[in-house]
Write a structure and sequence with these properties.
This protein has 734 residues and is α/β, with parallel strands linked by helices. The protein folds into three domains: 145 residues, Beta-Lactamase (2-Layer Sandwich), CATH 3.30.450; 159 residues, Alpha-Beta Plaits, CATH 3.30.70; 232 residues, Alpha-Beta Barrel (TIM Barrel). It has 24 helices and 25 strands. It has an eight-stranded mixed barrel with strand order 17-18-20-21-22-23-24-25, surrounded by four helices. A six-stranded antiparallel sheet has the order 3-2-1-6-5-4. Helix 23 links the parallel strand 24 and strand 25. It starts with 11 loop residues before the first helix and ends in a 9-residue tail after the last helix. The N terminus is likely disordered. Bound molecules: ligand C2E and magnesium ion (MG) (2 copies). The site of one magnesium ion has 4 residues, from loops.
Amino acid sequence: MVRGAARKKDLFWPVVLLAFAVVAGVACAGLTLVSEFDRAAARREQSVVANGIRGRMNEVAHLTDLEVVWDDAVRHLDNRFDADWARDNIGTFLWQNSRFEDSFILAADDHPIFAAYRGHAADAGLYTLFADGAPSLVAAVRREEARRGAAAARPRLGELVTDPNTASALAAVKGAIFILSATAVESDFGKAVLRGRRAPVVVTAMPLDRRFIEGFAQRFLLDDVHLHTGSQAARQGMGYVDFHNDRGQYVATLTWAPQTPGRTLLRRMGVPALCVLMGLSACIVWLYARARQAARELVASEARATHLAYHDGLTGLPNRALFQDRLGHALKQLPRTGGALAVYCLDLDRFKAINDTHGHHVGDELIQKAGRIMASLCRAQDTVARLSGDEFAIIMSPATAAAAVNLAARLTEALRAPIALQVGSVFIGCSVGVTIVSDAGLGAADVLRQADLALYCSKEAARGQFCFFQPEMDVAVQMRRALEADLRAALAEGTLWMAYQPQVNNRTGLTGVEALMRWRHPGRGDISPAVFVPVAEECGLIVELGMYALRRAFEDSRRWKSLRIAVNISAKQLRMKNFVSQVMGLVSEMGVDPRRFELEITEGILLGDDPDTHAMLCALREHGFELAFDDFGTGYSSLSYLRRYPINRVKIDQSFTANLGVSDDAEAFIVAIVRLARALGLSVIAEGVETVAQQQRLMAAGCTDMQGYLFSRPVPAAEIDRLWAEPRRTILAA
Ligand code: C2E
Ligand code: MG
Ligand code: MG
């Protein structure tokens, strides 16, 4: 009943960890992306620079071609060697125009016959300095010369040489790096012819000096460009291209400050992106924490609400609702355990006096202390509850007679002792009523009533005592038993009789009668069916009583041809499986027409929407009975039942009639019901009409059928005979 909130697994730390993992994961992915970006940029830059160097070398070779592949060069360097021409057009020209630092002319046997250094003629022995690079290039030129053969040496007149025989490479010389190129002397327009198969070869050397490097850097937009010879160590962290000579040997490394678009992006966007990411994670964690807090508060407030609903706010003890629930539960367990339980009702004797003299706060403190004392004397499995004011109750389960007496004695004794309050000690005393229950058939209300009766007796006897319940105390039970016996006898003797109350229509007068059972008790006089019908229902006499009423009504119906007779049917009767067959048996036995009878049922029958009840009502309708809905408006969901059940008539409860002219609601209700009934094709009758004013208001509301003392009280059948015999039965009409 009072459930503890289920412990949910706390996901806060996993959520925090997850948020951090997401931040870390995204950051790692970002960094990887950045470095991958930079690596790709470096690779691209490297291949651009390498291609640039290659292009530059080709350009350099071409600069030499311009002077060497020329008819004049054939004439002055091959046909007849002209040292002055060589100095002016090779040494000086190439230095001044293109900054070839060294230039050499090799004869057909590859022997240097001319050298120039920075534009001036120099000793041909200078060529030995280039012994590590030039000969292999010259050899390549010679191989190409041999491949092309004689035809190449003598181009046809007017045909421009488009493919000079040249080779170039990088070489390390004198601790510096040079672009070396070797070019065979050739005619450009075929106006001069080489003397032999082998042409002179011009070798040039251009240093990759600071000026060259800066020019290159400017062209390729490189920063911090350096040329390193002899070591690759400077490559670390830089963009670089390694240079090799024509034999594949390493000669130098060109380095530059690489472009890092990824890192630049990271520098610009990294911190803001990280901030956004952290912010988002913090938001997620915060939202989760809020949601968790809200959920916790909800659970706590639900638990609080549940606790409040079942506990007394002042003492924290179970309240009446929880007490009744536990008592019901304990009673249900009785047949299983086979034992007994004891229920105590306690009342603080002088509570009212103390509350009145010292005020409510002292009264409250006293109630709390008394509750604590009671709880301290009971076992954990027992229930101590505060029912109201100074009224407490205890369930001891399981219980023996000795244990029950023992607890009762300890309770009265403990509460007889002075109780220390803030205003000082007070003597209060307590009366206790106890009942020991081993009969599983009793309900919680019966048991509590027994304990209450015992408490009443203990107060009567002398305060500060305890009393155990004795069956004799239960006067009501006794009276009920007596009534039950008398009713059984009355049924057997046939002393119950039927009164009939007229039902009238404001135009046509008497239209029907309601059969109401009457019992004149030999000792107690007239007893209302409102009293004895429930007794009959409880002791199982109702079936017999109901059939008795029907038999009498069927019998009397013969007296008034065509008058409709309403008979009340109890809910318990309708729950009998063979009710319809019993009634139909009686119908054929008495030879009556069911269409003249209206069975009045109350809403209680329909509650629960039992399919069997529904089927039974349908069967009764099929046999011709009319069905009226008695005491309409006092139950629940009445309107929806109107649609679902095969009802002919609605009887507006007397309480609405009585309230006509007293409350507007009653009038509004009647108007609404009349309208709805009309829409559903049902007729409406108002009961309990006592005054002309009520009658007029009902008529104004559209209700034309009525029943009540205004027209006639329930009367013996003979009186109805008289009314029915009147020439004009409209005597009762308005
Ligand atoms: P009910 O079926 O609602 O019957 C109407 C009750 O209102 C009757 O009370 C009737 O005497 C009373 N009454 C009629 N007109 C007026 C009026 O103008 N003013 C006032 N104040 N009361 C009026 P009664 O006869 O005491 O019956 C009480 C209830 O007992 C009935 O209520 C019905 O539920 C039940 N009952 C009566 N006879 C039988 C029966 O034969 N079988 C079953 N199962 N129940 C019956
Ligand atoms: Mg009735
Ligand atoms: Mg009624």
